[in-house]
Request: fold
Amino acid sequence: MSRCTAPVYGHRTTSAAEACPACRGRSRGYGSYSPSSYSYPSYSPPQSVGGSGGGGGSGSSVRPRWSRAGSSIAYTPVQVQSLTPIRQTVETRAAEKPDLRDVFLCHAWDDRQGAAKELHDLLVAAGVKVWFSEKDLGLGVPMMRAIDKGLLNSRIGLVLVTPALLDRVPKEGVADKELSVLLARNQLVPIVHNTTYDALRNVSPMLASRSGLDTAEDSMAVVAAKIAELVAL
Reply:
């Protein structure tokens, strides 16, 4: 059977249609052919696996080894890659010192009644044991000594990266000292909130080099759920 040459050569003229082996003799109907009138086979990109969960730009989701059976929480490959060493730290420190708190929450002072408290409350509701200055820093207790003990007695650290924290870190205050300790160990999860990793990189390239979680990709509740799975034993 002869094939129509319209998709390749077009039938904009009568002579072109007459030259087509399939349309020869029927050229009157092709005088107005344009490439847009030909239907090419359509292509649909593959769908991502598991539509919920974090972004990370990968468009797919995977299940980490520490994910609970029946969990509906989805992680991106980038998140799993960055959180796997943290999980190993959780398991190692739990075996060495089973009575440690799950996480130390590092945050800017200005966030203590806002985003930091929201994250703290979500974590506690999910069963995570959190060291949080608003709760654990008693009146009359030397601040730096209390923070040192909190860091020492927690398996991993969470750093809530907000515009307020980015403003505080260059001033080398308490938050900066907490970060210095956490950055020295493989136990740090940045949680970027209402800012970006690019903005963080301008303030602390070392902290920005640690991949973590981002509330632009997951809600704060989902972030808390992922941390709860990460530290659960």
About this structure: The CA atoms of residues 92 and 207 lie 23 Å apart. The chain has two domains: 6-37, 77-231. The chain is about 40% helix and 10% strand.
